[in-house]
Amino acid sequence: MSAVVDQQPPGSPGWISQHGLSAVDTARLAQLDAAEHDPRVFSVEGDLADFGGMAFKERYPRRFFDMGIAEANLIGAAAGLAMRGKVPCVNTFGAFALMRACEQVRVDVAYHHSNVKIFGSFTGLASGFSGPTHHCIEDLAIARVLPGMTVLAPADAVAAYHLGRAAIEHDGPTYMRFGMDVTPQVHDEHASFRLDKGLVLREGSDVAVIAAGLTPVAAALEAADLLAEQGVRARVVDMHTIKPLDEDLVEESAQIAGLVLTVEEHSRIGGLGSAVAEVLCERRPTPLRILGVPDRFATELSDHEGHLRRCGLDAAGIASAALAALREVDAT
Amino acid sequence: MTLDVSNLAVDTELPERARSLRRHVVRLTADSSGAHLGGSMSSVEILTALFFGGVLRVDPRDPESEGRDYLIYSKGHASASLYAVLAERGFFPVEELETYKQPGSRLAGHPSKEVPGVELATGSLGHGLPVGVGLALAGKHDRSDYRVFVVLGDGECQEGSVWEAAMCAAHYGLDNLCAIVDRNGIQEDGPTEEIMALEPFADKWRSFGWEVAEIDGHDLGQVTDALHRVPHRDRRPTAIIARTQKGHGVSFAAGMTAWHYGQLTPQQREQALGELDADAESSA
Fold this sequence. Notes:
The complex is a heterodimer. By secondary structure, chain A is an alpha/beta fold. Chain A folds into two domains: 165 residues, 3-Layer(aba) Sandwich (Rossmann fold), CATH 3.40.50; 133 residues, Rossmann fold, CATH 3.40.50.920. In chain A, 42% of the residues lie in helices and 18% in strands. Chain A contains 13 helices and twelve strands. By secondary structure, chain B is α/β, with parallel strands linked by helices. Chain B has one domain: Rossmann fold, CATH 3.40.50.970. Chain B is 39% helix and 12% strand. In chain B, helix 9 links the parallel strand 6 and strand 7. The longest helix of chain B has 19 residues. Chains A and B meet through helix 4 and helix 6 of A and helix 5 and helix 6 of B.
């Protein structure tokens, strides 16, 4: 993060060689670049600023507040800053923002439609060996149910940058989740993002795979390759905005494929899959399979990749779930 | 800028204003399905001093005016006295008080942003001081001279978020922030010292780095004086612990846990209003 004004287009090879492919870093870069042009942008921290936040502190020390390990005050104070027209970017682990300080997010942020941007890192199973206290598989369900909350799950570091900028420009409370690791690149410099529009990454008419987040979208694309080897054409959608959901794209995908799979690094309850199910039930009843983390704490010690494999959220797991679903649908 | 203060005489006009607020609280508690009478009565002098004692720089005709002082009423359950003072100060018509907790009214049991003069919707306890910290940080950043007053219940100070904010306010030297604790000593289930002891209460605030004043929260002279002197010390937040009585001003409710929340019968309504009238006559 050296250049203040980046000459390289985000997602280009030059930009990636400079900034890398960790969404934690590029979400920070989005805040830093936004702050350059917009004096309303503040960085508000919960003693986790050393995860990429020090550049902001060095460049804009008067707009940087570390609130220590006290998330209720962190969120409440951010809402207070927003009451004065600031755009506070709260950076902490997603679990702490949305669960430790859930009621502050509900009352001070959502109820007041405060212009607070919550950047939640270490979500899903990204914390791997850290164990269930640091796994965060409930945040989408919580964020999604709060009225007026925009909920984002970028598919890669490029999307994290663009969606981070869009979140800051958007007027209203926003939650963006991401992990911690370097993850595969999905989008290049030609990708463009709108907060209410999902992206079709690959066309196909046998099954529609609607995915969201850092590992699921890349895995879904890889699964589509595996399925193609079996003669199955999968449509792959990056549903980066969980709320407001691009309902038309959900319905269109269901219509084209007649079978929908959702993939998320989140509990099978309450996240992307539930959101898609709500739309399909009401608008176009279609067979649906929800791939996510089972409804229990992931107590097995494992790295991130191992957890994903165990939950069937890697490419092989997604492909075999798609084939099984196709067989079941054909049999009925 | 039309920001100004309303500065009534402490010895004559303010007591009558406080009685007027109490009459409203009695009516709201009797004429609706019920209200938090005890905590509304205990905070009357605090609100009277803030809005009529030459403290808050606000403009009732332009509640969002730039540069105003902020009042965060964190003990939102005691909304009856807040609505009463906002109406009397001219933020909305006094007649609107009759709509309290009626269908279609802006005046809910817990105050919302729909009500002119309400800066923060409160009701869930422990929210006001953190938000006040954010407002005060913004004021320091902008080098603006507005002040942020947060009225807290004493039972509310059992919430951990209050102490998170207290630590933070002292850390950042927020002398533009003032917490006023309505120390009426009673919470829903009984006396605070029996339910969850707060004492030594002033020492707690001092040890968190606040400048503390302990006053009689029903003595308008003491309350206005303490509020006028904010900040009590440079680069430190001010805590004013106002010792009050729950249900103050109504004999059968004063100091009674049972009147934390309730509805007055028509007879109780008349008795309470009669007592306030008698008080006015004896002070005249």
